[in-house]
Design brief:
alpha/beta, Rossmann fold, 2 domains
Length: about 375
């Protein structure tokens, strides 16, 4: 984020509203130390205020960033909604941590997914490199005039946020070339004062929601355009909406997001060595959900297993629900949900092998299956 903020020094600079919460704290500490040529980092008394700072800054045309996690995100909720409905291109790092009580600091995607209907674009990252690259891509998507929506860059707590690995970091020159100056077309102008967030009637609200929907539907194509530019500037790929692996001839496909995808990929390779035709799809873009592309990648595969590190009470995994809805009317295929790593439990290779074995022998879908529960 720091390089992205500095890249806007020729315009209205960068503003970060920050408040710490484990395991996000190191992110805002790093941002607070960055010597922006033009910008301010503003420590505040709560997560709600952190987003309020970003809202005010974005309404004045600045490039804006914040970060949060778990109950901090929950406390921020009102302003998370406001940021999207004001069409402000704010980027937020969401370090996925279990919501409490009981208090738990380990990985669970329920915190960011509670905002799945708040008109924020959501990107789920699997590695440190993916986080760094996706943060840069997020600003380009958010500020695109065809979109103008905020973006969450999500990562699993500790598994990604506190794991060290070698990555290729952007240079300031690359950030300057990749990111145009931030232009918020509806920013406040003292010469032409307007009211922001006033009362509206049902018909105006309906029009507003339709415009949000249209902007969301443009995101996948806009994202692909900027991925091409990213490759040209940085000389490497950044993952798009969905990442397919060994799916071309697969008769069973497993779908996951975040760090579970890394373990799943290794297990897919194991089973391929045994002659088993299994494949996987990693979901990177969750909002908007790339349903049409998912249908294309799944083809006529009859068995699909979905591994969720999240849970909607009384229903099952959130990604599983979304995938079932997308595949509805696509034939009598089996789509089985598996709840894995909920509450931050380890998803080790044997856990994933159990999922593969279960789906392979299954002839019909059952209620979502919990993995990692002591019997």
């Amino acid at each position: 984020m720091s390089l992205a903020g500095e890249a806007n020094r020729g315009a209205r600079g960068a503003v970060c509203g920050i408040y710490p919460i484990t395991p996000q704290t190191e992110i805002v500490e790093f941002v607070a130390r960055f010597p922006f040529t033009k910008g301010r980092v503003i420590p505040v008394e709560s997560e709600h205020s952190a987003m309020a700072v970003c809202i005010g800054a974005a309404l004045n045309g600045a490039r804006t960033f914040t970060a949060s996690s778990s109950n901090g995100l929950a406390y921020m909720a009102e302003n998370v909604m406001v940021a999207a409905f004001y069409r402000l291109p704010i980027v937020m790092a969401a370090v996925n941590r279990t919501l409490g009580p009981p208090w738990n600091i380990w990985a669970d995607q329920g915190d960011s997914l509670m905002f799945r209907d708040f008109a924020w674009i959501q990107l789920y990252c699997d590695t440190n490199q993916d986080v760094a690259d996706s943060a840069m891509l997020a600003f380009r998507i958010a500020e695109d005039p065809r979109v103008l929506l905020p973006v969450m860059v999500c990562m699993d707590a500790f598994i990604v946020s506190h794991t060290s690995m070698e990555i290729e970091l952007a240079t300031q020159d690359q950030a300057d070339r990749f990111l145009p100056l931030c232009d918020v077309p509806h920013h406040l102008d003292l010469e032409h004062p307007v009211t922001i967030g006033g009362m509206s009637f049902p018909q105006e609200t309906l029009t507003h929601r339709l415009e949000l929907d249209e902007a969301m539907r443009r995101v996948p194509a806009v994202m692909e355009e900027h991925r091409v530019t990213f490759r040209e500037v940085f000389g490497r790929e950044v993952a798009g909406d969905l990442e397919a692996y060994r799916t071309e001839d697969a008769d069973r496909i497993f779908i996951a997001s975040g760090s579970i995808s890394i373990t799943l990929k290794d297990v897919v390779d194991e089973w391929r060595e045994k002659g088993e035709k299994v494949g996987m799809i990693r979901i990177k873009l969750f909002r908007p959900f790339p349903g049409e592309r998912l249908r294309d990648l799944c083809g006529n595969v009859e068995k699909i297993g979905v591994l969720d590190r999240n849970y909607s009470a009384g229903t099952g995994g959130i990604f599983w629900q979304e995938i079932r809805a997308v595949l509805q009317g696509q034939g009598d295929r089996l789509v089985q949900g598996y709840l894995t790593g909920v509450g931050g439990g380890d998803v080790v290779p044997e856990t994933v092998r159990e999922v593969v074995r279960d789906l392979s022998q299954r002839s019909k879908a059952a209620a979502p299956i919990w993995k990692g529960i002591d019997q």
